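Purpose: get a first structural picture of the assembly so the mutagenesis plan has something to point at.
Setup: two entries, given in the order below. No constraints added.
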Amino acid sequence: MIDSLYIAWRYLAFNKARTATLIGCVTLLAVLPLSLDLLLAQSERELRSRAELTPLLLGAKGSALDLVMNGLYFGDEVPELVSMASVSAIDDAGLATPIPLYVRFHAREFPIVGTTIDYVDFRGLEVAQGRLPALLGEAVVGAEVADRLGISAGDSLLSSPETVFDLAGVYPLKMRVTGIMKPSDTPDDRAVFVDVKTTWIVQGLVHGHEDLTRTDDTSVVIERSGANVVASAKLVEYTEITEANIDSFHFHGDPEAYPLTAVVVVPHDDKSATILRGRYLDGETPHQLVVPGEVIDGLLATIFRIKQVLDAVILVVGFATVLALALVFALSIRLRQREIETVFRIGGSRSTIARLLAAEIFIILVASASLSIVVSLIVHHYSGELVRAFFIR
Amino acid sequence: MIRVESLAFSYAGAEFHLRIPEFSVEAGERVAVIGPSGSGKTTLLNLLAGILVPQEGQIECAGVRVSSLSDCDRRAFRISRIGFVFQDFQLLDYLNVLDNILHPFRISEALRLTRHVRERAAELGRQMGIEDKLHRRVDHLSQGEKQRVALCRALLPSPGLVLADEATGNLDPRNKEHILELLFASIKAHNATLLAVTHDHDLLPHFDRVVDFSNFRSAA
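Result (structure tokens, whole complex):
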């Protein structure tokens, strides 16, 4: 058998392209369903664990899935907005601790998560370097953000404009990075955490500029009437918050009306949770209070139904590939007729040919299996990152 | 060495019929077989080697009645007692020179690939003047070198009988003479018998005897 394996190996090594194609096909056949299973299992684990740790999530009526994906996994799809008043309403009820979330903007490709210090406690996040944000314009970044952008405490980070072509939009805000979070293997690693007010600055709802009551520049001041001053577009807004200009930042309008994407609601007990859920079942309320675990269960049920279809497709493709491989071998026997004739003439038999072909198939299967194991181990090793990078976003 | 009696063979569905009433070759003899194409020269070699089985008659090689052996025994007999040399060398491109020479030992359970066999293969390569090419790919060799490799492969099991089917047919005149010299020297050194099919009448003086095959074939 060793001699047959040797001859088969020489044949396969001589026909490198054909061998590589065959090994590639068989490897794909094994790796595809295996990797799909691994990634789905990882997705399920990641989705469920975070959902189960988040008791309730308040948001505007609309897609519960968008709300959960944005509120828990900082997904790109921004749900309908709610206002700060909804946080006050939960707080006033005395049944739960509300944690506001405003996840709409990005710094580079990472989501800026506007929240309060309660979020850090709620998720059990720890600072690895530096400190948590204490002032407007300060940010603490997740471990992956720090790693990928190569930033550390003391550096700064610019918010990304909502659209490149929005010339009249708000200038990017230069945020000071005060700390780096410890890795948590959750979407928090990919987030830039700021105080919720900082996100409103990013949006332009809160801003700072030179004191118009003290300037005499007529090209800046268009009109003065009592306490009101109308300024021209020449007025430069601050794009960085410093000790010198922090006092000039101010709200326009009612802060209670300021927007949020969601509110994490942490009830004091089961009874409080039930009462709160009952309150938000009312058809006339513009809000919905969802249990993220239930939403994720629904999503996973859909995913697994799709996976069943994918499994069937892979099975059919696999069957077709096996047939194609059998055809390749059958054709190669015809192409190798002269070689087979030589083997017969010098004393080989049909079983010799069968042994040589079996050895070739064996080597291809072993090589494919080894490659599949390596690829699967790589997929398994990086499944968390892959899932967070491609599926949960 | 070879005894053929009342042999009759035909291919199924073909009009070809070969009849040999009597034919013999003595041990150590070098016999050339000539005849027009289709006269059955190659068929005779295949019958002697046990690749084909006659419908009638007896074939005896080196004291073994080949026509009475089972399939398995015929293959073992062929690989251990007969060396085959082909016009187109029939070397395997994907094996290097040494592996081609050792090929019969790798595909048959009747032969054992030992260290001694490897040493003999290298020695045969040296005798044939290809010792520096043993690890080269065969498609990098000249025609003459390829035939030397084929000779080494045929001679490595120390066969008592060497069957050459137009072994010099693809070679230029200079290589033809040289290969024939090497073949005869090896046959003599191994005390083997040679039965060579050839169309080249210039080579006939080198043989002990010439058999004209035109007489053996009969029309249907």
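Residues 56-208+249-290 of chain A form one domain.
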